[in-house]
UniProtKB/TrEMBL annotation:
Residue ranges of domain FAD/NAD(P)-binding in the record: 5-315
Lineage, uppermost ranks: Bacteria, Bacillati, Bacillota, Bacilli, Lactobacillales
PANTHER family: GLUTATHIONE REDUCTASE (NADPH), MERCURIC REDUCTASE
Protein name as catalogued: Dihydrolipoyl dehydrogenase family protein
A Pfam family of this chain: Pyr_redox_2
Source species of the chain: Loigolactobacillus binensis
Residue ranges of every copy of the Pyridine nucleotide-disulphide oxidoreductase dimerisation domain listed in the record: 334-436
CC cofactor: FAD
Length: 443
């Protein structure tokens, strides 16, 4: 049996769903998913992570106000916190599926396989379409070492019924930092093994070093220049062997050394779609080497950060292309936030770029700890670095180190996108005193 569609979307995460919804009014759309409807972000990524982080934030706020009106730091009750998270995530797949059906989008659960340039098979059925969108995301990299079967991933962490007493994370990127912060806040002994000396390599070193110090004070131990070689199970837990003399036995080890494109089983060769280790190769219209097939989101080989709003934007863009748009994709500013204690956020021109071109950029680094906004909540340290283009005096980049960095960076992103000047801001009233009422001081 062959079933015909205008567009078939493979993968029901933020990228694929954004494309499917944007096409559904004008096209016959099929979405194929082989695991959880909704994808990584709401099931095993951003959203559950930030549900757990809610308790961490509250605990941080309370601990900052000790002896300034509060006595006693609340303890995190892991099983209750996990139940709170599960109450949210358990509803995601069915809710996503119901939304697709309500939008008249056909859905199939199963493993799709390209069997030609314009068709796939799922179980015994063949589906043909004028266009396809590959939106299959990424999956954690598992280091190929002795004892790799003992390594768990972020997915396992976000579903832990009981918090292990001793935990090691391999890698010092987004996933390791955010999950280590949650685990340490909830009372675990936490170790981060990093093969070099760099944490959060995308972010400026001054801020990441400060974060390392803050996390160390909360009980996270960093083991720099340390490569995991083997994991063995014994009576007391998992023993880690590394390239150093480190002797470490823990109750759980999590691989957080990056993610890779999820392409297994798709048989891309049959459709003439090329991919490298970095993901599916696309042009500036997100078109693959088969011009009828597009790719969006984390699965794409691209320079932009792999984040939910980026995947959604790409999904909406490809839908517009399929409905007639001709312009190449240009990305807006993309704010990035690491949700630790505190958060680090950045947007626009990178600090290292500005430092290398002093005639082009002016850098203003401000310790804002004593500003009213940050002093009121007793932030131990808060910093805002702003980068201006010399020729226009426009704000073109920012880095924020604070427990409210997520909000400040969003405001700064809007100011930068809209090219708002200090004079224009002075005509605006924002509620006072709030993080928004500081904005003029950043310009
Ligand atoms: C722990 C963690 C925390 C994160 N936190 C944040 C955050 O705070 N903010 C942020 O912006 N981003 C965050 N991210 C990244 C974010 O989750 C991704 O950028 C986003 O989910 C990408 O969307 P996507 O649609 O490209 O892929 P995905 O969400 O991964 O969706 C892909 C879908 O395709 C399905 N699929 C895969 N292979 C096949 C196949 N062969 N056939 C059919 N279906 C298939 C998958 O099951 C999945 O449902 C986080 C990621 C992780 C792992
Ligand atoms: N807050 C957020 O927006 C958020 C949170 C989590 C994840 N994410 C997304 O998910 C992506 C993946 O996160 P991640 O932390 O897994 O990857 P990452 O690329 O951020 O970090 C990988 C870490 O592993 C280390 N590493 C690399 N190769 C290694 C090896 N062979 N052995 C040991 N360590 C090694 C790297 O040096 C780095 O520290 C992020 O880049 C981001 O796009 C975003």
């Amino acid at each position: 049996m062959v079933t015909e569609f205008d567009t078939i979307v493979i993968g029901a995460g933020p990228g694929g769903l954004a494309a499917a919804y944007a096409l559904a009014q004008q096209q016959r759309v099929l979405v194929v998913e082989n695991d959880l409807w909704g994808g990584t972000c709401p099931n095993r990524g951003c959203d559950p992570k930030k549900m757990l982080y809610s308790a961490v934030e509250t605990r941080d706020q309370a601990s900052h106000l000790q002896h300034d009106g509060l006595s006693g730091i609340p303890e995190i009750n892991w099983p209750e916190l996990m139940a709170f998270k599960n109450a949210y995530t358990n509803k995601v797949p069915a809710g996503t599926l119901a939304g697709l059906k309500a939008a008249n989008i056909t859905t199939v659960h199963g493993q799709p396989r390209f069997i030609g340039a314009d068709q796939i098979s799922v179980a015994a059925t063949t589906y043909r379409a004028a266009n396809f969108i590959i939106a299959t995301g990424q999956t954690p990299v598992i280091p190929q070492i002795e004892g790799q079967q003992y390594l768990q991933t972020s997915t396992d962490f976000l579903a832990l019924p009981k918090l292990p007493a001793r935990i090691a994370f391999i890698g010092a990127g987004y996933v390791a930092l955010e999950l280590a912060n949650i685990a340490a806040s909830a009372g675990a002994e936490v170790h981060i093994l990093q093969h070099n000396q760099r944490l959060l390599r995308d972010f400026p070193e001054t801020d990441t070093r400060l974060l390392a110090t803050a996390l160390t004070a909360q009980g996270v131990t960093f083991h720099w220049d340390t490569e995991l070689r083997a994991v063995t199970e014994n009576a007391t837990g998992y023993s880690l062997t590394t390239n150093t003399s480190l002797q470490l036995t823990v109750d759980a080890v999590f691989a957080a050394s990056g993610r890779q494109a999820q392409l297994a089983g798709l048989n891309l060769a049959a459709a003439g779609v090329e991919a490298t280790a970095k993901g599916v190769t696309v042009n500036d219209h997100l078109q693959t080497t088969n011009t009828r097939i597009y790719a969006v989101g984390d699965v794409v080989a691209k320079a932009q950060p792999k984040l939910t709003p980026v995947a959604s934007l790409e999904g909406r863009y490809v839908a517009q292309v399929l409905l007639g748009k001709r312009e190449a994709l240009t990305y807006p500013l993309i704010p990035q936030v690491v949700y630790a204690s505190p958060q680090i956020a950045q947007v626009g021109v990178k600090l290292v770029t500005a430092q290398q071109a002093p005639t082009q950029y002016e850098i203003r680094e401000q310790d804002v700890t004593q500003w009213y906004t940050f002093n009121r909540i007793k932030e131990p340290t808060a910093r805002v670095t702003t980068i201006f283009e010399q020729a226009t005096h426009r704000l073109v980049g920012a880095i924020v180190y604070s427990s409210i960095a997520e909000e400040v960076i969003n405001y700064l992103t809007i100011l930068m996108t809209q090219h708002v000047t200090k004079a224009q801001l002075s005509q605006q009233i924002t509620a006072y005193p709030t993080p928004a009422s500081d904005l003029a001081y950043y310009l």
